[in-house]
Amino acid sequence: MAKEAIQPSAKEAPRKKKRPSKKKEAGDKTKETKKPPQKHAAAYTRGDTHAELLTKRKALKKDLAALHPTKRDKVLAHLHGGERRDLAKARLKNLKEDDKHADHSNLTEYQKQSLQKRRKKPNNALQRQMHRRETKRLRNAMEAADVGEILHSHTAGLVEAETDMERTTQLTQRSLKHEHLEENVARNVYDLKLTDYGPYKLRYDRSGRHSLLAGAKGHVSIIDQHTLGLKTEFFLPGDIVRDACFLHDGSMLAVSQRQCVYVYDGASGAEVHRMDGHRRVGGMAFLPYHWLLATVGDNGVLQYQDTSTGSLVSQHRTKMGPCGAVRQNPFNSVVHLGHTNGTVTLWSPSSSEYLVKMLCHKGSPITSLAIDRSGRYMATGGGDSKVKIFDLRTHKELHSYNTYGGAPTCLDVSQTGILGVGHGCHTTFWRPEALRTKMKQPYMKHQLSGNGPLESLRFRPFEDVCGIGHAGGISSIVIPGSGEPNLDSMEHFTNPYADAKQRREGEVRSLLEKLTPEMISLDPDAVGGIEESNLIQRQQRLRDVAEEADARKAADREARKHKKEKKKMRGRGKIAKKLRRKQQNIVDEGMLKLKELREEERAERERQTLNDDGDDEGEEAPAALKRFF
């Protein structure tokens, strides 16, 4: 039997594979290629998103932690503003304390609940803004530190001894000039013999380009220190020069003559202005950021004159007699005055009384003053032949140095902190560390035989040069490491290579940025600061201060009552008189009756005088005969 071929049925026919649908294919494509997330509108207007900012901030902090400690300190100084970091921390601490002890008594229940909700709910917008600003400040600080390394490539170097047997004080100006210095630096070592109009005082302008020579017998001249050429010279016959100084730059100078102060043009020597109110001025100081000329003279009156407007800002009576030692603090522009009674007072134009009074040299007058660039240390010279160093943050004495050959008549501190002392015909220079700690040996010495006592000693800005004025003229010497090697040309009137156009633009900018006299204070960082507390907290503090004052007054009153009475001589301390004085303070019935009788007698006398007013004979009679009418 033949087998029949088995054919598959229709149901068992092989199924065709189905093609994937187009929708599924499109879905797979969307899973494989994701679209980038859309950025917020602020990402295009403000820069990176919040997540990107946090990533950059973490990377910047890692870079900061990997830096060298010295460079890290520089970055942190740029970031936190140096010493202002402590002030910011103290202000933040006060704000937190004020928030903890805030007074909500004047708020309603609804306002209190709203305040609690706002405290619990984080402010995301404010956090993003704070993160953005902190990241920007950190990036700018790191860039500023890098720029500082590129620009400040020079450092101030001091002379160091090779062996222990050598001393830097043995180095003379002659050996420096002929053996060690380059030609362009060695030309700064010279002597000008001017014996006819001496003694001379020497001043430099802020850039160190020009020097002002003022002879006591009426000779005034300006010398260009780059070319050593005479720029201006004029004589004042029959008059004397007490002091002289530059104003904002080398184009104007103020000269204190016999009676008053005159302002002259630095280019032609012509008289520009006369200030009659400044009489017999012995010391002057110019405040460049405020355009103020501070003068004080034999009458002991400190005056501030605005040189931009020509008006008198303020004048204060020191009530301490003549004053010749005047210096301004370059850190806060406070004027320091040295008096003949050994005290130093600190003054501001906005205060009628001195800010601080320090007894520096007991029993001897103050002959000279000097303040360092940072405003932390003050050096005073007295008639007791001592130079004392004071810390202006605590107003206490740190240490002192003795001088030989006479009292220190002139002092100055260079830009790098070197202290120069002129005593007799000698000059002594101390290292910058001598201001902080007492040193045994000075840095350098120089002697001017036969020309003492010295009148002035000033360091030239941005150069290792020191100018000395004395009876024989002017001497210029080189003190290695005394000048600032890095020049800030953006600072007004400090660029010695500025042309006429730059000087004009700098003068206009300085006038636009001029500070008001009210901004001069002991702590310049407090100017423009934010109050630590709100109005309620300030009122509460004022109430606390008033309560403390009242409590002290009450305690003093009680102590005065129980105070033991002093014994008085010549019968005043007898027992009867003591009891009589004590009895006067006791009020009893007898005392009250006595007061009533006295009041009745007084009223009776008044009525009697009113009745006697109608008597014409008593009015016409002479004064000696009125008792008979």
What features would you describe in this structure?
This protein is of the alpha+beta class. It contains 14 helices and 28 strands. The chain has a four-stranded antiparallel beta sheet with strand order 1-28-27-26, with no helix packed on it. The chain is globular.
Key structural traits:
629 residues; alpha+beta; 4-stranded antiparallel beta sheet; 28 strands; 31% helix; disordered N terminus
Itemize the secondary structure elements and their pairings.
Layout: H1 22-32, H2 41-46, H3 50-65, H4 69-80, H5 84-100, H6 109-120, H7 124-151, H8 173-180, H9 183-186, E1 190-193, E2 200-204, E3 210-215, E4 219-224, E5 229-235, E6 243-246, E7 252-256, E8 261-265, E9 271-275, E10 281-287, E11 292-297, E12 301-306, E13 312-317, E14 323-328, E15 335-339, E16 343-347, E17 356-359, E18 366-371, E19 377-382, E20 386-391, E21 396-402, E22 408-413, E23 419-423, E24 426-430, E25 444-447, E26 456-459, E27 465-470, E28 473-478, H10 500-512, H11 535-561, H12 575-584, H13 589-612, H14 616-620
Antiparallel strand pairs: 1-28, 2-3, 3-4, 4-5, 6-7, 7-8, 8-9, 10-11, 11-12, 12-13, 14-15, 15-16, 16-17, 18-19, 19-20, 20-21, 22-23, 23-24, 24-25, 26-27, 27-28
